């Protein structure tokens, strides 16, 4: 999920029927018979990582089942370098009608899309929009808020930790919303952040989790691709919440929940629109809670009353309530969101400053 320099202003609309749709001037790409379709997937990591890339591979498998006559291409562990552009061009040369890239590659992808206007390109966690390129992601901050509610109720000290990758919006959004959820039930809660400069480095993740525990943290949240933090938490006798998939087997007593990803319906719908001649570069999609992103079933040591309190918040969010409400101050004490105000979904997607009480992140 690397973050690259943004090329264009956000524009467009959601692609799924349960999200609002804005009109775009682009004409739909021509229909393609399923037997003639070539659908390509490119991943930032190995599909065996048990996390981020695994979830996208699962979506590909669902698409294969839905469209058995189509041909599917898949490349794992694509580096964020010129090699990525070569891979994306190879997709086009191999006849791809649609290309899904499960992390942001910025210009490395857009330069290919600009040269292949007859091909649909979709970039996960992207920012560039054109007649044949869109981006998609999940409203992870809302689930992180829910997890924060449960975490604060279970923490003995109120001192919580977060292990992330880079100082990018997805990390700011997770850590910030986690603390805001925690402070909704425990105003003195804090979150200490350690970044490891990788999405998948089990050794570094374990070291970061150990450092947090040595600093008195008794609750860890992580959005990395593996379960190393959970394993460390289990050995230390504290609690941990993870991302991507159900990781409870790595530490059943430590497991609180996981922010779960499910791209299957999105991929099936997007491919269906492309084959039917209805895909027109719809701008962006942010999958909401209950439709692509959600919390996992609660861990076995989560008290029923804690689960019920957090799930009451989840119900409100699914009903349309925005939990990212002011007053919100940043780490310097400056009011960023006034009382009565809120951050909308695009602002949360672009979040690049730490809220008051988050330590270890600096505004970018």
From TrEMBL:
Q: Which UniProt keywords apply?
A: Signal
| Domain ABC transporter substrate-binding protein PnrA-like: from-to ranges | 39-281
Record keyword Ribosomal protein present: no
Q: Which CDD domains match?
A: PBP1_BMP-like
Span of the secretion signal? Answer: 1-25
Q: Which InterPro entries match?
A: ABC-Purine-Binding, Peripla_BP_I, PnrA-like, TAT_signal
Name of this chain's protein: BMP family ABC transporter substrate-binding protein
**Native source species:** Endosaccharibacter trunci
């Amino acid at each position: 999920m690397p973050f690259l320099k943004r090329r264009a202003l956000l524009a467009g609309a959601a692609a799924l029927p349960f999200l609002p749709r804005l009109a775009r001037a682009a004409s739909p790409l021509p229909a393609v018979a399923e037997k003639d379709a070539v659908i390509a997937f490119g991943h930032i990591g190995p599909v065996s990582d048990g996390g981020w890339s695994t979830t996208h591979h699962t979506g590909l498998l669902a698409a294969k089942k839905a469209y058995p006559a189509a041909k599917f291409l898949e490349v794992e562990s694509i580096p964020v370098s010129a090699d990525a552009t070569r891979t994306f061009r190879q997709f086009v040369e191999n006849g791809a009608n649609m290309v899904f890239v499960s992390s942001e590659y910025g210009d490395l992808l857009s330069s290919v899309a600009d040269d292949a206007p007859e091909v649909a390109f979709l970039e996960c966690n992207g920012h560039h929009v054109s007649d044949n390129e869109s981006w998609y992601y999940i409203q992870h901050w809302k689930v992180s808020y829910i997890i924060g509610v449960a975490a604060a109720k279970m923490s003995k000290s109120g001192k919580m930790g977060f292990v992330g990758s880079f100082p990018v919006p997805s990390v700011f959004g997770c850590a910030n919303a986690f603390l805001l959820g925690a402070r909704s039930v425990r105003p003195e809660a804090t979150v200490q952040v350690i970044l490891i400069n990788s999405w998948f480095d089990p050794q570094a993740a374990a070291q970061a989790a150990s450092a947090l525990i040595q600093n008195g943290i008794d609750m860890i949240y992580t959005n990395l691709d593996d379960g190393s933090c959970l394993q460390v938490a289990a050995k230390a006798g504290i609690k941990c919440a993870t991302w991507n998939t159900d990781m409870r087997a790595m530490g059943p007593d430590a497991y609180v929940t996981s922010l779960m990803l499910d791209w299957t319906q999105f991929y099936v719908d997007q491919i269906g629109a492309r084959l039917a001649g209805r895909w027109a570069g719809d701008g962006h999609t942010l999958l909401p809670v209950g439709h692509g992103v959600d919390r996992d079933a609660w861990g076995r040591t989560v008290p029923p009353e804690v689960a019920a309190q957090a799930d009451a918040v989840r119900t409100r969010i699914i009903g349309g309530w925005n939990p990212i409400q002011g007053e919100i101050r940043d780490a310097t004490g400056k009011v960023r969101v006034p009382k009565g105000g809120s951050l909308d979904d695009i602002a949360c997607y672009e979040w690049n400053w730490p809220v008051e009480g988050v330590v270890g992140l600096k505004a970018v």
